[in-house]
Amino acid sequence: MGEAFRIGIVGTGMICQDAHLPACLATPGVRVTVLVDPEADRAAACAQRFGINPLIARDVAELPGHVDGAIIATPNHTHADLAIACLDAGIPVLIEKPLATTLADGARIKDWAAKSKIPVAVGYCTRFWPSVVVVRELLQSGKFGTPKRFAFQYGAAGGWTPYSAYHLRQESSGGGAMVVNGTHYLDRALYWFGYPQSVVYQDDSHGGPEANAAATISYPELTGTIRVSKTEELTAGCVVETDAGILIHRDWRDPVLEFRLSGMSRSRFVTGDPGMSMAGRPNMYRLQIDDFVKCCRSGRQPQVGVDEGLAVIRLLEELYGCRQTMPDDWYRASGVEGRTT
Predict the structure, then answer these.
(1) Which residues contact residue 202 at a Cβ distance below 8 angstroms, ignoring those fewer than 6 apart?
(2) Sign of the dihedral through C-alpha 335, 188, 284, 100
(3) Which residue ranges form the domains of the chain, and what is each CATH number?
(4) Over 50: is that where the pLDDT of 47 sits?
């Protein structure tokens, strides 16, 4: 094995400590050499908690010479300026999703990436699940028929509590439930089906980040819905109906991937691949780090790059641009049972 790939993590809050730092430490050939946080005491406490001895820095200006790549794990509205500062210093970046809070800021990052020819990856980590890749292959090849409609959903009462509470402020988060959880499904819809022709959108925002949101996105012969909630429990996953049957992808429970075929007496099948079970599925953050390191070393494009990140922001801005007010009793009125089956 050659020299370790040196990573600096910018921001030592919840997503750093729960996801990115453990993934880095568990990935062979990766070494965390710098933790950046304007609150140096918090970065030092983070290092102590994980038993590492990186350089503790207050600003990304201290990264050059100490890292081969950086993870931007800070509040959403800071992503663009921090990423551009790293790119300007010749440092590749993996930016926690979303790429930025506005299309204009996302375009700034893309322009710098194109000018510098330095890799930019975006943290839509569920793209790395083997089951998500398999579904794309099945849909694009037509091996499970032609898609007719689909539905994504995710709901959890409360949940994510970042140290800075940035998610409670519209200007720093860029949005609410549709940003925090919904953008994973916007990204997945784009990955599986491409960019839609038209959208309809409702949420319960009254000037701040929304707690509940529902989007309908339409294609020439395909329509889908995305429903996310921060007040109701909704089993995470999606259902895709094709002319061959129904495909069910459960994000966090077995069977992760299930097929129900039309017109057959024994119509229910589940995959036996251990990599597509909850017990055998590889850690998505480790897969993401591994992809980032490989693209930095080889010069190839990351699996989820700046163009994909920008497409999500574009779609998100379209949704917010046609926002309608969601009925207060949306959950009861919709008849949602809190499951994807």
Answers:
(1) 213, 214, 215, 323, 324, 325, 326, 330
(2) negative
(3) 5-126+285-304 (3.40.50.720), 129-278+315-334 (3.30.360.10)
(4) yes
Strands (E), 193-291: 198-203, 212-219, 222-229, 234-242, 245-250, 257-261, 268-270
Runs of H (alpha helix) within 27-78:
40-50
167-209 residue pLDDT tens? 666 776 889 999 999 999 999 999 999 999 999 999 999 888 9
Q: By three-state DSSP, how is residue 194 classified?
A: coil
- Please tell me the distance from the alpha carbon of residue 117 to that of residue 115, in angstroms, as a whole number: 6
Task: Phi first, then psi: give them for residue 297, nearest 5 degrees.
Answer: -80, -30
Q: Which residue has the tokens 């925002």?
A: 205
Backbone dihedral angles phi then psi of residue 193, each to the nearest 5 degrees: -120, -15
Residue 269, C-beta contacts closer than 8 angstroms, at least 6 positions apart: 258, 259, 260, 261
221, 148 contact by CB (below 8 A): yes
CA 231/CA 332 separation, integer angstroms: 13
* Top-confidence residue, 39 or 266: 39
Using pLDDT thresholds of 50, 70 and 90, give the confidence band for residue 328. Answer: confident
pTM metric for this prediction: 0.92
